[in-house]
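quick one, 99 residues, struct below
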Amino acid sequence: MVVKRDGRKETFDRSKLMRGLLAATVKRNVQIDELEGLISRIESELRDRGITEVSSEDLGMMVLQRLVDVDKVAYVRFASVYRDFKDIDEFSEELRSLM
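---
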């Protein structure tokens, strides 16, 4: 289960996570197999740790930790949605943290 920011719980939806990753990697040289593997590693980690509920924030951080090694542009795209940047300063700060 994924616990949303407003407290609602949703069943983990692998395809929803894939849609978000596909949006972040559009026109990038990232293979779908690589994204599938990223999702599988997250699922395995949660399962191995015995976690049955994960917050959407923690899930997003798990994605970002892996995505930064796959493609930095995709990382920033995903982060901009996940972290809900309010202005260009927040976006710039994220870019500086990658350098």
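Residues 34 and 60 are 17 Å apart (CA to CA).
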